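Proteins fold reproducibly. Consider a sample protein:
=====
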Amino acid sequence: MRKSSLVLLTSAIIGLLLVSGFNRPATAANSVTPQYITGTDFKMLDTTKLPSPVITDEKETKIYLDKLVTEAYEVWLKEKDVAAVNDFYRENNCIVLTPEKAEVYGEVSSNNTDVTMGTPTVVYEMYSGNYIISATMQWNKSGSTPKWMNDFTGGAGDAEVVGLSLGNGASSSFTNKGYLMFTEDKNDVNTGTITNAQDWDNSGVIFRPQDVFLSDINGQNKNYNIDGYYISLYVKYNGPAVGVPIFSQYGHSWTKTAIGSWGFSTGGVSISYVDSNYAWKASSGPKYFN
């Protein structure tokens, strides 16, 4: 697994970490409690036992985390394997706080069979002292045919709704430090890097990417620009917080259906549609933070 070019933070930074007496563990198994029906309860790291963040400037922190997450997404796009992504993070001064499962991001859970919603994962990034929450969505197939093909004739509806949040998205126990979203087509080719959110608060982010059905001039080689996505949210923990659920949610519509309303709620992101016959919402987990 390649190391990120971010490790160009020089040997001086590494030296600072060593002076502070920190020896990065391979895993953070001690921070994960046994699983419950509703997810996994993630214990917070004791930051008093970790070195102070090396990066403190807000702008530098955002640039650093954006680059780190972008390179993590490149690993995900190539491997589609959470173990590979976690290895990347460990090699780049992060502590992985979530259990691993082959092929999928965390434990898969969804209330919609058209898509697979990867349960959110959490890593602690040591240079900036922030947590990175990430989640994925992948359309399922019937045989070799993606299920979005069922919507192809009717056409895409309103822009999709993609949400990632801790609790109701507005928890003062966290400070939102940034976010990114990436989309890909059925050939695992990146179709968009989205930096501007439609809405965000202390502990959540909502994106509204417009989906598009694609084909060649003869109507063949059908494709879809959101066959899958990868989304990340960076937060600083202010405390205190116990049992905060992490929600990853995806609202889909087709046949020109419009979104009636959307926004943060106690259940993550709430969405209403003008015609629910041509729309649905899929949700992961949730998992539980601290």
In short: The mean pLDDT is 82. The helical segments are 10-19, 58-79, 82-91.
